[in-house]
Amino acid sequence: MSIAFLVIGSGGHAAVVADALLAAGEQVLGFTDPDARRHGQTLCGLSVLGDDSVLDQHTPAAVLLANGIGGAGAAGGQGLRAKVQRGLEARGWHFAGVRHPRAVVSNFAQVSASAQLFANCVVQTGASVGDGCIVNTAAVVEHDTVLGEFVHVACGAVLCGNVRVGAHSHVGAGAVVRQSVQLGEATVVGAGAVVVKNFAGGATLVGVPAQARRQHT
Ligand SMILES: CC(C)(COP(=O)(O)OP(=O)(O)OC[C@H]1O[C@@H](n2cnc3c(N)ncnc32)[C@H](O)[C@@H]1OP(=O)(O)O)[C@@H](O)C(=O)NCCC(=O)NCCS
């Protein structure tokens, strides 16, 4: 029996996931989404089939899931991505990894089972990409860099060598993290920031050089 994929979610990230799966020659059945207004819409020529009850028509032996929930703004989005995936895994479903055929991945990198690697990204030798991570379009994860689970490295971000990024962090589009910098869990690096020193978890970092953003009251 051949394996087919269902994409969980139907937003922009879900479309990118489906596009990469199709480019890799996989069979994609469509999308699920709790929002009934999206049911029947099409993305990448595939339908939004319904809510989670669509899964009842399939079995984990025949269908793998792909996580289509992105994490664009802050750790909150990443939290939903992890929550939905862990909830469905607890019901016996398996989340597959996604690897666009034009992702460049070293044979000496470790990529966890459900990580997602998109077009023109580079994952270099000795790097480690945790479960549920997104390495988005044209992002660079340089040598020996370690991403905890459910980290999102957004489009065009560059993590120089030997960087550590804690779980559930978001590195914004076009950001640069200098070599050997360590970021704690649930860090949000703003788009275009340049991070040149270590930060503990939970901070939102913006600017060049990046500073923890002042909290507005
Ligand atoms: C940093 C970020 C998380 C802040 O989001 P937010 O909490 O909604 O912040 P706001 O848009 O309300 O902006 C708050 C302040 O921060 C500033 N700011 C926001 N993003 C910034 C950035 N990337 N760099 C510098 N300053 C930024 C705003 O100008 C604003 O300043 P002000 O208070 O002086 O007016 C967000 O702007 C960002 O950069 N997210 C990454 C997006 C991304 O990479 N998407 C790619 C998906 S693939």
Q: How would you sum up the major sheet?
A: 8 strands, mixed
Rg, please? 17 Å
CATH class group of the largest domain: Mainly Beta
Task: Indicate the overall shape.
Answer: globular
Multimeric status of the protein? single chain
Helices and strands: which structural class? alpha/beta
Question: Share of helix among residues?
Answer: 10-25%
Strand content: 25-35%
Low-pLDDT windows of residues: none
CATH topology of the largest domain: UDP N-Acetylglucosamine Acyltransferase, domain 1
Question: Can you give a write-up of this model?
Answer:
- With 217 residues, this protein is an alpha/beta fold.
- The chain has helices at residues 12-23, 75-90, and strands spanning 4-8, 27-32, 42-43, 46-50, 63-67, 98-99, 104-105, 110-111, 116-117, 122-123, 128-129, 134-135, 140-141, 146-147, 152-153, 158-159, 164-165, 170-171, 176-177, 182-183, 188-189, 194-195, 204-206, 211-212.
- The chain has 2 domains: 4-96, 3-Layer(aba) Sandwich (Rossmann fold); 100-200, UDP N-Acetylglucosamine Acyltransferase, domain 1 (3 Solenoid).
- Helix content is 13%, strand content 29%.
- Strands 6-9-12-15-18-21-23-24 form an 8-stranded mixed β-sheet, with helices on one face.
- The mean pLDDT is 95.
- The structure holds coenzyme A (COA).
- Coenzyme A (COA) is lined by residues 72-74, 136, 154-155, 172-173, 188, 190-193, 204, 206-207.
